[in-house]
Structures are given as C-alpha cells and as structure tokens.
Amino acid sequence: MKTESIERTKTLKTELQKSYFNDELLKCGNDAKKKWNLIKKFWPHLIKITNIENINGKTEKIDMATEINEFFSKVGTNLADKITPLTAADNEYQFLNNLITNCPPVMEFAEVSDYDVAILIRDLKPSSSCGADGITARLLKAAGPSIYPVIRHLINRSITARQFPQIWKTGCITPLYKEGDATNPSNYRPISILPTMGKLAEKVIHTQLYTYFSNYELLSPRQAGFRKGYSTGTCLLDFVDNVFVNMDQGMTCGVLFLDLRKAFDTVDHRILLTKLRKYGLKISATKWIESYLEGRMQVTKVDGVLSPPAPVACGVPQGSILGPLLFTIYVNDIPKCVANAKINLYADDTAISVSARSIDDVIMQLESVMCTVSKWFRLNKLSVNYSKTKYMLFGSNNKKLEAATRPIIVNDDSIERVNTYKYLGVKLDQNLNFSTHVESIRAKTIGKIRLLGKIAPILDQNTSLFLYRSLVLPIFDYVDYVWDCLSQQDALTLQKLQNMALKNILNVPRITPTEQIHTQLNQDMLQTRRQKHTAAFMYDQGFFCYVIS
User: What is the DSSP code string of 295-326?
Assistant: First the structure.
C-alpha cells in the first residue's frame, strides 16, 4: 500500500511538472531563445555556466573586472615583447620578407548610398545588446528609412576623412570560462560587443576589401578561414584527401599541427599596413585602416559591473567584422615559405604536411619546414606555443610508425609526436580510420542522451526533439562527409547512440524496433544523413551529381 502511494505521488509530481512546463513553453511560441532560457531555468546543468567569484585573489566585482580587463588588454603586447625578432643578418630574412609580390596601388574605399545602408540594416541581427554608443540593432531597424541618410553621411564622412570615430573603438568584454583554474584570467575567453554603428562601417569596408582580394585572386587557396565557399569541412577534406593519396602510394605522411598563442591579439599593426600596401591598397585606404586599428579601448563586465577602460595596443579587434579578414591577409603569405610542403590554414589553425617513403626522411623534412616557418612567425611577431604544437605520422605500417618516437627539435624547443590529434574538431588517428573520432562523439553525446531520457517524461515530444536537435544531432552531423569512411562496427556504434536518443524521446522500451522509432519521429538513420550531407556538399562545391536510389 505504501509503495503504491509513493508511486502515485511520483506520477502526480511528474504530471504537474509536465503541465507547468508545457504551459510556460506555450508562452515562448516559436522563439528559440525564450525556449532555451526556459530550459536553462528548469535544468541549469544542461548548460555549463561558471560564476566568477575570485580572480587573482580579488573578490570584489570591480576588482575582478579590472584584473581581467588588464590581462586581456595587454596579452597581445606582452606576448609580442617576448618574441626574438628576426634580423637582416639571418640568411632567410630577405626571402621571408619579400614573399608578397608588390601590386600597383589601385584599391581605395568608395562611398555608400542610402540603398547600401538599407541592405546593411536589413542584414543586422535584431539584438538588444549594444556597445559603448548605446545604439542597438533593434533601434536602427525600428527607425526605418528616415535614418538612412544620417547613417550614410556618418559612414561616408569616415571614409573621406580616413578616420574611424573614437566612440566606435571601445569594446565591452564579457569573460567566458573555458577550463582550468577559475581564478586565472587566462582561463577565460573574451566575448566582445562592439558599437553597432561601428559594425555597419566595418561591414562596408569588409565587403569592398574582400571583393578586391577575391577579384584579383590575392588570397591564398590554402586559407579556408572566413571565406565564401570555404569552411572547416573543405579544409579537413583537402587535408584528409592528401593524407590518403600519400598512404595509397605507400608513403608515410608527416604533419605538423601548429598552435599559436593569442594569434589575433598579437597582430602587429605596422606589419599589417605594410602588407596591405604591397597588396595594392592606396594610402587613403591604409590610413582608414590605421585609424580603425589605433587608439582602441576596452572595458570588461563582471555581473553587470564595468571595469575602467584600458588601451589595446596591438591585435585585431575582438568580435569585429573586419578583424578576421585583416588577420587572414596578415598570414596570407605563409604558404609561400613552405613550397616543398602542403599547408592547410583555417584562420590561425595550421597544419603542414610532408611525405616520403622513409620515416627518417619525413622527420628531417618536418624539422626543415618548421625551422623556416618559425622564422616567418618571428618576423611577423606571432608566437608559437611549442608545448601544444604536435606532429603526427600517418601510414599503413603500424610497426614502423610505432618505432618512430623521437621529437622534432627546433632551436631549443621540442615538438612531441602524438598518435591522435583533434584537428578542426575531428579526432585523427595514425591510420585515419576515424575510430578515435567515433569514440570522441560517443563521449560527447552519451551523457546528453541519458539526461534527455531522464527529463523526457515531463516534456512534450516537440520539446524533446528540440533538445535532441540542439544538443546531440550537431555532434553527429559535424563535417560527417569528411569521416564517412567508417568501419561497420564504428557506424553501428553511432547508430546505437541515435537509437537510444530517439527511444528516450518517445519514452519507449529498448526493444522497440529501430525502424518504428525513426518512422514515428520522421528521423533519418545516421548513414542516410551522412549520404545526404555528402551529396549536398558536392552540389555546393559544383560537383553536380545524381543520387540513384
């Protein structure tokens, strides 16, 4: 009798929770952001949030904000100051300093029209957050065409005067905890909010600058970051294809995975402006970019409390529209310094590949390449993190691969050899069969799937599917066309995970037929999803094909 009473109480509690949650959910309508806020309110452990309570022994909010702001504002300068500059006495100085072929000065920034402004405002995300100017995107959208002439005048005045207004140069930083010691500012990622008006001006310059570099084919085809038609998927596919080609020819492929310290924060403004002039920008254009980069300030917010502003002397602005393109241009010439190797770039993620029949020859080539590349980084004031830089050997002869364990030595620094490495979100192993990546997917999803099973009884089916599509499915789908060459066992491992998730959503027994749950929820099997994603990728890349069922 007592057991029955307890069970009835549990059932009643579940029904009340479900009723209350679904009532609140109805109020959210189709607003995904409101849904997420509601879900986080009920199940805060779904999203990892770490409150900042102590930074370097400081516990007052203003002191913590100031400590973090000082660290973020000086991190680039402090790193750059530690780099030993490459001098003209080095035998490779002239070669590395003249990788860019001088172009005639033809590029200058053009003024915009009211129509251009209308397009800019139309494309703004209707966010309520604002920068130092206090203007939100939502406000600009609400103002409508009446404000277009004012914005046009401000942007055009900035272009003709070659000045980026000071009020648009202050970023507001929100620190986001990554991992490690929560009292150390270096374990936080800066999320920057810049003034909306400044972003409109940036978008104008970005469009014109990117169009110029694209039309004149000045951007290296080895760079896949922040470019139309390129992605982590295209970069990974090119990398994997190169390794497979070498393995098929009986070669051993050696790859350096370079890790840079705060690469975006250490961009030297003088070097960047010199490169832009070499690429054909007129003085009027480089003057505007110089004004855009110089005199920047930032504040940091901790629990609503702002730090005093601090100057930022180097690097490209965090959270900016133009910054990533400027960084891409800054590193655009690095592929030219490794002519005897293949380089894959995605922003600052760099992989350099060489191949040979002898493992000793591969390691010698890697050491030679790394010696040259390290000098390029010194010349351009970028800092290599040698403790996180690794190298891998790919091949089909496991005994020979396992026998090669020695590190690569560059000057006084050692680069460790590893058997697995996570590159652009995909776990690679020395045979490139992606078994380690499948295990990584399992580790990432299993906890979420089990949690979904616990909370699904008080959710309606649509909300459970919303959580599955938000938290689990993106992990299954990420660049799956790159690693679709799985063994039957690995493919089955992933399918079992999806089956478990869908059964949890439906709250049905484990013995329920797989085909039934997929049909009921209208969900493709993972193998079918991978095939569709492959076909879509090929179509997007211009490989038009027919899929015959």
Answer: TEEEEEEETTEEPPPEEE-SSPPTT-SSHHHH
pLDDT at 45: 60
Q: Which two tokens stand for residue 49?
A: 């949030």
Residue 519: φ, ψ to 5° = -65, -45
pLDDT at 35 (0 to 100): 72
Helix (H, G, I), strand (E, B) or coil at 413: strand
Q: Is 101 helix (H, G, I), strand (E, B) or coil?
A: coil
Candidate from 95-99, 106-110, 311-315, 470-474 with smallest mean pLDDT: 95-99
Sign of the CA dihedral with 382 first, then 285, 324, and 342 last? negative
d(Cα 296, Cα 292) in Å, to the nearest integer?
8
CA distances from 84 to 44, 327, 383 (A): 47, 21, 10
User: Looking at 294-303, 459-468, 476-485, which range is the least confident one?
Assistant: 459-468
Helix, strand, coil fractions of the chain, as percent rounded to 5 = 55, 15, 35
Range in 96-105, 253-262, 267-276 with the lowest mean pLDDT? 96-105
Q: Strands (DSSP E) along 140-281, which ranges?
A: 170-177, 188-193, 252-258, 260-261
Per-residue pLDDT at 484 exceeds 80: yes
Q: 228 near 292, Cβ under 8 Å?
A: no
Q: Tokens 């370079």 correspond to what residue? A: 258
Dmax (CA) of the chain: 91
Distance CA 370, CA 256 (A): 8
Q: What six digits make up the tokens of 312?
A: 């930022």
Q: Which helix (H) or strand (E) holds 534?
A: helix 526-540
- The contacts of residue 260 (CB under 8 Å, 6+ apart) are 348, 350, 377, 382, 383, 384, 385
Which amino acid appears at position 149 of this protein? Answer: P
Amino acid type, 416: E
Listed in sequence order, the DSSP H helices in 83-231 are 93-97, 114-122, 137-143, 148-161, 196-215
H-assigned helices in 83-146: 93-97, 114-122, 137-143
What count of Cα atoms within 13 Å lies in the side-chain half-sphere of residue 286? Answer: 17
Element (H, E) at 25: helix 2-28
Map residue 87 onto helix, strand or coil.
coil
**263 in Cβ contact with 300 (< 8 Å):** no
Tell me which of 27 and 447 has the higher pLDDT.
Answer: 447
Pairwise CA distance, residues 523 & 525, whole Å: 7
Partners of residue 236 on adjacent β-strands: none
Global confidence as pTM: 0.90
